[in-house]
Amino acid sequence: MEERKFRTIPILISLLLSGFIGMFSETALNVALSDLMKVLEITPSTAQWLTTAYLLTLGILVPISGLLLQWFTTRQLFVAALCFSILGTFLAAISPTFGFLLTARVVQAMGTALLLPLMFNTILVIIAPEKRGAAMGMIGLVIMVAPAIGPTIAGLLIENLSWHWIFWLSLPFLIIALFFGIIYMQNVTKVTKPSIDVLSIVLSSIGFGGIVYGFSSAGEAEGWSNPKVIISLIAGVISLGLFVYRQLSMKQPMINLRAFKYPMFVVGLLMVLICMMVILSAMLILPMYLQQGQNYSAFKAGLLLLPGGLINGLMSPLMGRLFDKYGPKWLVIPGLVIIAVSLWFFSSITATSTVIFVIVLHSALMIGVSMVFMPAQTNGINQLPMELYPDGTAIMNTLQQVAGAIGTALAVSIMTAGSKSYLSGVEDPKNPVHLLPAFTQGVQNAFIFGMIMAAVGIILSFFIKRVIIQHKSQVSTH
């Protein structure tokens, strides 16, 4: 294959700017949920679908991304992703009703589902393996800083304007990213147009969609006994089993599962999934604790979580450079220990815990996550041969959405069960005086769940080894 030259910096700016706004609008709405419940007159379980529908769309579309990357050029996919994002954001900004807003969120998620795998795959192709850690660190900066500042800016907009402005603010940046991409984006992948297997797409959609839907629905009032939770999970697991069997028996599979033959890819993937479960469950539980347990406004809750999020984002490029220099082991093992210790301290949180206690622990947790996430992910993908990059990124991005849905659902279920357990042990459970200690016990139990996940990660981390890159990058950059 001939060596090709890419304008690396403009391509990276196009991808990172659009990725930043995509991640910002995804998390900014979380803080607005309580405001939306009042304005649109909906219950918490209904409002939750604004997040669930987003995750569900990603769970269904991201697995197909590996196929789309081989059917369409980089420019075509980038423009399509931005057009979906712009349309979804505009519809959300003018939404008069809940149903309208939910539809807008699905359209937004379609853009993100195309953009995330495209971003990872393009960087794998245009950046030489020995410099890849620093580039993935820049992605980490975008992926972590956007969710960090999202709640704070959203809280400020809600207090002074309205929730619609979360989307009006994002719109001009998405339009700038689209024009920048049209001018500078280059086609970096080869279009091979492999055959499309409709049955694989159907099985993948039911499989991943069923699991995400089932776990997300478990956070509702009826919990795990809800028939739709049980049916969704059974349908999802059976479809996923049939999907895996079909992929392994096909000559040209939709997702090449032979990526799982590479041990460091598997170890890296498991680390990333544990990080996603920990970080998403913490991002859900902490704002609830600050707003309900400590009576802070949405803006103040977002402001308290801002330092940790910014530290995490700023640490990501540094961790990327350290990974390029020293490999993953000396970052991943200490990182998981920091995560486990932070969550252990968080499990003793009470309604009287100080602001400093929360900020310091949240910052420590975010430092730990930055030491694990990108190094484990980059090391895992580095072991794959170049032809498996689209499949490896599709697998990682899909399972991250599934892990996120599972992590948040388990955290909410454990928190609810902890509260119920406390109330069952008191004489008058309906007395309002018991509500705060019951809620606190639920929050503590949710953090213990996160600590157990981190402990599993520590055991796995001893198996991680630096990948000696056998395949040379086929491109040069300038």
Plain-language structure description:
With 478 residues, this protein is mainly alpha-helical. The protein has 16 helices and two strands. It has helices spanning 8-40, 44-47, 49-61, 65-71, 74-93, 98-126, 132-160, 165-184, 198-217, 227-249, 263-293, 298-326, 329-346, 355-382, 389-424, 435-461; strands spanning 4-6, 475-477. Strands 1-2 form a two-stranded parallel ribbon. The longest helix is centred in the C-terminal third of the chain and has 36 residues, at 389-424. The radius of gyration is 22 Å and the shape is globular. The two termini are 19 Å apart. 53% of the residues are buried.
Q: What is the overall silhouette?
A: globular
The overall pLDDT average reads: 79
Element string (H = helix, E = strand) = EHHHHHHHHHHHHHHHHE
Strand order of the largest sheet: 1-2
Considering DSSP H and I runs of 4 or more, what fraction of the residues is helical? over 70%
Determine Rg (CA atoms, Å). Answer: 22 Å
The total of helices stands at 16
Strand content range: under 5%
* Poorly predicted segments: 471-478
Largest sheet: 2 strands, parallel
